[in-house]
Design a protein that fits this description.
With 91 residues, the chain is of the alpha+beta class. It has helices spanning 2-10, 16-19, 60-90, and strands at 21-22, 34-35, 38-39, 41-42, 45-48, 51-54. The chain has three helices and six strands.
Length: 91
């Protein structure tokens, strides 16, 4: 972890320990990592490039998340479509 710290400092990343997270997959449940004495938080899931990644290898929550976002987008489009229809009716 010292190499990560030294490299990040070269590029001006000073608070790397606060922003860094770890996730363990497989049989290992927990690991203790630290950078210069600061403990790195371990998470069970995170979003990477728009995909929900979790430690169990399951993608069910990621699929649910995409469905929820799609539903919200369609809801917004429906409201826009209805307001356009009202404007056309008033003309």
């Amino acid at each position: 972890m010292t190499k990560i710290y030294e490299t990040s400092r070269k590029f001006g990343l000073m608070d790397i320990a606060e922003k860094t997270k770890t996730m363990v997959t497989g049989k290992t449940r927990h690991t203790h990592l630290n950078i210069r004495g600061e403990v790195i938080k371990q998470v069970k899931q995170f979003v990477y490039l728009g995909e929900l990644i979790n430690a169990h290898g399951s993608n069910e929550k990621g699929i649910q998340r995409r469905i929820r976002h799609t539903s919200q987008a369609f809801g917004m489009m429906t409201r826009i479509r209805r307001s356009i229809e009202l404007i056309k009716k008033k003309r």
